[in-house]
Amino acid sequence: MTASPAPTTAPLIDISGLHYRYPGARADALADLDLQIGEGEFVAVVGANGSGKSTLARLAGGLDKPAAARRALACGHDLLTEAGRLAARRDVGVLFQNPENQLVAQCVEDDVAFGLENLGWAAPQIRRRVDEMLSRFRLEDLRLREPHLLSGGQKQRTALAGVLAVPRRALVLDEPTAMLDPAGRREVLAAVAGLHAEGLAIVYVTQEMDEVVAADRVIALERGTEVYSGSPSRLFADTGLVRRLRLGLPAAGELALALAERGRGPVRLPLTMDELLAGFAGSA
Amino acid sequence: MSLSCRGMSFSYEVGGTQLPALRGVSFELPAGGSLALLGASGAGKTTLLQVLRGLDRADSGAVLLDGVEPDAAAYADLQREVGLVFQAAELQLFAATAREDVAFGPRRLGWPEADVTTAVEAALDLAGLPAGDFGERHPYSLSGGEQRRLALAGVLAMRPRLLLLDEPFVNLDPGTRRDLVAVLERLKAAGVTLLLATHDVDLAWSLCDQRLLLADGRVEAVGDWDFAGAGGSLLAANRLREPFLVELWRRLGRAPESAPRTAAEAAEALA
């Protein structure tokens, strides 16, 4: 296990020695996993298919019961108890890959309002908050549309708006942009960046290496255990580890690597196109 | 198998109202060719694939397979050689084991059991789920990406000559994505015609001869069209973006229409 630098204040998500195994499975989905997410920290989680990313997302959000843990706290709530898990679900929003299971109402705006109605907010506040969310996720023209008539990407934006309508202390997202077109992806990333700037702690599970670049820290999982915790640039510079974990590089990094194999290219691995172009200019 | 789509239109009927999903779609895909279907969410990509596969019937226009019209006697047999891998792979998985799931298609086609076994092993192998390791696994015990690959194996086992894929790269880790690209390249080399709907403009650029841009059910552009200039603003208007290498070429002051398709080609050009 790689030692992670300890956050300076008490971690918002504080998990140590987490175990989980699916019924009938031959191996642990999560094995002796440690995870600390500080207040306001944006942590990306990567790993091969089956490495435990989605399982970790569900447990951190209080949605499943850990098999065992030395410690499992989310926003101060004990995930090992049912009461703790229920409380965690209020403070930790979770958005899944597939919004099919998350849309419940007859139309978009009702779906976005759902969580707030459950919390007993007053109607004018709900209306204001729903309008804000619909605008943020470009759903105004779809506000009265029935969910089954939405495309996958539209459904996902609706689900995200609904999760975020309720004020949260932490947000766990499991491949939130997987079904979105590039503009939709940009919108979600911008929304997440905005939430991060507002101080929300974010756990961001993704298969898109370009999306990892914005994170404060990235955690890489392998067969249910954390094998890396640190900066995105240090992870991507370790091409052996990247290959072993079945990851990749951001597009700019892939090109830089191909150039390096031909004896050319920037000295420091670029992670964005701007960095790549700066590297070219520097070596001109 | 060649595919010819001629003025094809399709509407969904919802509670008495017609919702047009495809309007006069026309394009030609030669045998062994590859086409990437691009478009904003809701443009009609999934609908187009379902009509091409014959799951829904077009309201007007025609889909010709190997030049054969839909009302010809031979058409039904040709339709059996068209495979579709759905976006939500779990919709296609239902058996108790991976092996049984993949065997379903060839068995339904009436193949002798020995041929079914060969096809199943080959398909699982090709999809990166070796039968020895994965054959007896319950499909629902697999991760999302593994389920995706199992669904692909189920379609490949029927040896389609035209393969339709709806967002095949979603939920796959980069390593598995690379493996899947290798599978598709192998299928292309073997002469299988490919049509895939994707939001991944970079893969559409590197993997396919042609790109078709669908907007609100209409064909906005088709062929090996220019992604820069007018093409670039078409992409932006459709919530897409330029492929990374096209944008890079443009920012380097090189002709974007001559941008390379892959990182390796780009490195060759720049080194």
Question: What name goes with the CATH superfamily of the largest domain in chain A?
Answer: P-loop containing nucleotide triphosphate hydrolases
Percent helix of chain B, as a range, is 25-40%
Provide the spatial order of strands within the biggest beta sheet of chain B.
Answer: 5-6-7-3-8-9
Q: Which stretches of chain A are poorly predicted, pLDDT < 50 over at least 5 residues?
A: none
Mean pLDDT of chain A: 90
* Biggest beta sheet summary of chain A: 6 strands, mixed
Describe what is shown at a glance.
The complex is a heterodimer of chains A (284) and B (271). Chain A is α/β, with parallel strands linked by helices. In chain A, 39% of the residues lie in helices and 19% in strands.
General description of the model:
In chain A, 39% of the residues lie in helices and 19% in strands. Chain A is an alpha/beta fold and 284 residues long. Chain A has two domains: 182 residues, Rossmann fold (3-Layer(aba) Sandwich); 35 residues, no CATH class. Chain A has a six-stranded mixed sheet, sandwiched between helices. Chain A has a four-stranded antiparallel sheet with strand order 2-1-4-5. In chain A, helix 3 packs across helix 4, helix 3 packs parallel to helix 5 and helix 4 crosses helix 5. The longest helix of chain A is centred in the C-terminal third of the chain and has 16 residues. With 271 residues, chain B is an alpha/beta fold. The mean pLDDT of chain B is 90. At the A-B interface, helix 5, helix 6, helix 10 and helix 11 of A face helix 6, helix 7, helix 10 and helix 11 of B.
Task: Give the SSE layout.
The complex is a heterodimer of chains A (284) and B (271).
Chain A: E1 13-20, E2 30-37, E3 42-47, H1 53-60, E4 71-74, E5 77-78, H2 82-91, E6 92-95, H3 108-118, H4 123-136, H5 152-165, E7 170-174, H6 182-197, E8 201-205, H7 209-212, E9 217-222, E10 225-230, H8 232-237, H9 239-244, H10 251-261, H11 273-282
Parallel strand pairs in A: 3-8, 3-9, 6-7, 7-8
Antiparallel strand pairs in A: 1-2, 1-4, 4-5, 9-10
Helix pairs in contact in A: 3-4, 3-5, 4-5
Chain B: E1 3-14, E2 17-29, E3 34-38, H1 45-53, E4 60-65, H2 75-79, E5 82-85, H3 98-108, H4 113-126, H5 131-134, H6 144-156, E6 162-166, H7 174-189, E7 193-197, H8 201-207, E8 210-215, E9 218-223, H9 230-237, H10 244-251, H11 263-270
Parallel strand pairs in B: 3-7, 3-8, 5-6, 6-7
Antiparallel strand pairs in B: 1-2, 1-4, 8-9
